Model the fold of this input.
Amino acid sequence: MRIGILGSGGVGRTLASSFALLGHEVMLGARTPDNVNAAEWQVETSGLIGSFAETAEFGEVVFNALKGDVALGALVYLKSALVDKVLVDLANPLDFSNGFPPSFTVSNTDSLGEQIQRELPDTYVVKALNTLNTPVAVAPGSLVEATDLFICGNSASAKETVVALLVELGWTPERIRDLGDITSARGTEAYLAIWVRLMPLLGTAKFNVRLVTE
Amino acid sequence: MRIGILGSGGVGRTLASSFALLGHEVMLGARTPDNVNAAEWQVETSGLIGSFAETAEFGEVVFNALKGDVALGALVYLKSALVDKVLVDLANPLDFSNGFPPSFTVSNTDSLGEQIQRELPDTYVVKALNTLNTPVAVAPGSLVEATDLFICGNSASAKETVVALLVELGWTPERIRDLGDITSARGTEAYLAIWVRLMPLLGTAKFNVRLVTE
Done:
């Protein structure tokens, strides 16, 4: 599958490398053509790099691996290239302007996932992989027990496409939890408020939660 | 220990019965003297019931088991009775006025736990037991694996007092996670945004999360 990754930071490069290793055709999209991160990634992996617009055009499935505070603005600009495509939104609307822990730029009765879906009504937005750090997201078996992943979105078939990619990454199908429509992004984004408190306590970003019932 | 439980709903009665069974002196506090829930509980358990004011006076440790939307107003009225005491805040600031799932009456850069601490500066507020339903809170061994509990508050000694009570309830000490000062209530309250999406998916309120690392 042709996969476009918007954002050449750590999240985007890690995802791009993982999907390339799995045999997908991957393009890593950077904001500017002289982006050093993207250029280094290209040298290391012999992968494709492109502009945001080229990457959005290239991908059959496109990942939003942009920072939460710039994602919406960039995606609106890519609207026509993303029509009828699956857009996997990994971003969290975190505001670090007052330091750590961050606050949210949108929360409670709205979410970044919903904002993106409203601005791109002809794109199938699936919120996923935003509740854990990317090295764990692409290697769930690196944790000592199977953990849970949360996805949501308005299109059942788009979620099926994303689940298939997540299973390729190593996720246990029964632990990929479909929380329903895109409004559940309010829940998975809000979870970051406890994640940012757990990370310093645990002394690592490499953790996740496992749901336990009776 | 003398334990006061403010609120005679399901949360309060379940907690009160559990602490009574553990040998503590417990008073269950109801808003009105003719409260049916409290009267039934008294008949079933031969326990003490009282007004909110009597319960706040009675307890060496007092639990706020009131609904989030009325808790702050009631506690402000009990301020003098709660001076120099540990107040365990279980409430979540959920707004069900638009149905389920609820939204929050306070979130993001503030929390109910912080509001209570600000209004009662001479009380030691410890946020705890707000991230799971009460039957699980008082019987953590009812789940098939050990899970994690989150507490926070400004007073280390108040948190020690609460941890000791939680261990009596059956919690694994290593899995009682001290997230720091009361501002971490922003995280544990926000977690409810995903909890309310998980509950219908799992088909039960009897679940919790287990943290997993490398």
